[in-house]
Each structure stands twice: as structure tokens, then as C-alpha cells.
């Protein structure tokens, strides 16, 4: 018996309000699947994809704009 057949048989045994809840749940999953884009689930993977091909030697690092130590402020 396939999963679809099992779901169908189980649905037949449920009262109408519970069938509606199951339908809402299934439609939620269907909508979630259609809105997912490749790589949207894993943040690390999205970051890796974003910076793919970036060469660290090509990055210009600007000089410091602030002194290493902050001036002392007296009360």
C-alpha cells in the first residue's frame, strides 16, 4: 500500500473537521515547498554560495581609521 493510499484510508475514518485540519496542513507543506529556493535552508551553505569564487588576495583592506588605543577621558 502506498503512502497516498494510507493517507486516503485514514482520512476516510476521520470526522470532517479533522479532515479539514489535515488538508490545511498538507496545503501548508505544498506552499512551503513552492516558496523554497535552492539553498535557502542552510545559512552556511548560502554564505558559501554567495562568496564562491572570491579570492582573498584580491580584497583591499583599508588602513585603520581609529587609533589603536582610545584617548583617556577624565571625569
Automatic annotation (TrEMBL):
InterPro entries: DUF2281 (IPR018739)
Any Pfam family matching the protein: DUF2281
Record-annotated DUF2281 domain positions: 6-43
The protein's name in its UniProt record: DUF2281 domain-containing protein
Organism: Pelodictyon phaeoclathratiforme (strain DSM 5477 / BU-1)
Amino acid at each position: 500500500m502506498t503512502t497516498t493510499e494510507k493517507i486516503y484510508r485514514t482520512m476516510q475514518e476521520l470526522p470532517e473537521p479533522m479532515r479539514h485540519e489535515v488538508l490545511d496542513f498538507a496545503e501548508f507543506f505544498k506552499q512551503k515547498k513552492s516558496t523554497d529556493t535552492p539553498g535557502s535552508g542552510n545559512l552556511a551553505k548560502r554564505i558559501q554560495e554567495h562568496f564562491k569564487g572570491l579570492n582573498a588576495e584580491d580584497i583591499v583592506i583599508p588602513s585603520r581609521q581609529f587609533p589603536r588605543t582610545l584617548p583617556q577621558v577624565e571625569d
